[in-house]
Amino acid sequence: MKYRKLKNSELSRKTPEAFKNSTKTPLIIILDNIRSLNNIGSVFRTADAFLIQKIYLCGITAQPPHKDIHKTALGATESVEWEYVKDTIALVKQLKSEQVKVLSIEQADGSVSLEKFLVEKNTTYALIFGNEVKGVLQEVVSSSDAVIEIPQLGTKHSLNISVSCGVVVWDLFVKLKIVNLQS
Predict the structure, then answer these.
(1) What predicted TM-score, i.e. pTM, was given to this entire model?
(2) Which of 8, 27, 82, 131 has the highest CB neighbour count under 10 A?
(3) What local confidence, expressed as pLDDT, does residue 182 receive?
(4) Does the domain spanning 22-148+157-181 belong to CATH 3.40.1280.10?
(5) Low pLDDT (below 50) residues in the chain
(6) Is 7 left (phi over 0), alpha (psi -120 to 50) or beta?
């Protein structure tokens, strides 16, 4: 079989308006004190790719518009709904009161390995990704409904925040599609 790379004009891209009117994947991303503007922009692109409901930017996490966020987001800040909330704990409490399941992505006692985490039908999940050095704050981890850990076998046991987001979002995107298709 011969493969031909597709041109940008062949990709059936949604307009920002069509994106906003699309049915969203029941995932919310919370960025808790992310310092890298490039990581923030990359998460916006991931959120755009998988029709994520919303991104919350918390604590010191920078907000669009910013040239370094824009450089990696490539316009996704215009399509993906986002909001700044200073206090991550207050946001977690609010989301839990709205029946959203809050998941910290962190290495912790009692964490569930990503491949073993089972999603529930008709459930919205908020995924919390923490600071590049300190991770998700302990108080936030303690307030979560569950903690998911990405299994790692090498010497570092550390992934870049934008890579972690891509891995977790893809995994849950697939699991949610499967479980929500079942009758």
Answers:
(1) 0.96
(2) 27
(3) 74
(4) yes
(5) none
(6) beta
